[in-house]
Amino acid sequence: MGLDMYLEKRRANNEEYEEIAYWRKANQIREWFNSHLENGVENCEYALVSKEDLEQLLEDCKKVLEDHT
After folding, report:
1. What DSSP letter does each residue of 24-64 carry, written as one string?
2. d(CA 9, CA 17)
3. What distance lies between CA 60 and its chain's CA centroid?
4. What's the rounded Cα separation, in Å, for the pair 63 and 7?
5. Would the pTM of this model clear 0.85, i.e. be above it?
6. 11-62: per-residue pLDDT in tens?
7. φ and ψ at 64, to 5 degrees?
8. pLDDT digits over 7-20, tens only?
C-alpha cells in the first residue's frame, strides 16, 4: 500500500475535481479517515469530507503535535 492520498474539491460542473492537497506515508491520517468517515471499513474509494470533518482533523493533528513537543 502506497499511502498516497489526495484531497479534492468538486468543481461547480460536478464532473471535474480540483486538487486541494496531497500527502503520502501518513498512515495515522489514513487511519483517521478510516475510523471517522468510513466506519472502520477501508475501501480505498472516494469519501465525502465536510468542512467540519477537516476542522476536526486539524484540531486532532494540533493536539498530537502539542503532546509531542
Report:
1. ES-HHHHHHHHHHHSTT----S-----HHHHHHHHHHHHHH
2. 5
3. 12
4. 21
5. no
6. 777 778 889 999 898 888 888 988 888 776 676 777 788 999 999 999 999 9
7. -60, -45
8. 998 877 777 888 99
* Residue 62 one-letter amino acid: K
User: Which residue's entry shows cell 498512515?
Assistant: 27
Overall residue count recorded for the chain in this entry: 69
pLDDT in the model for residue 40: 64
Contacts of 6 (CB under 8 A, 6+ apart): 19, 21, 22
Instruction: Please name the amino acid found at residue 30.
Output: R
User: Cell match 493533528: residue?
Assistant: 61
pLDDT at 62: 95
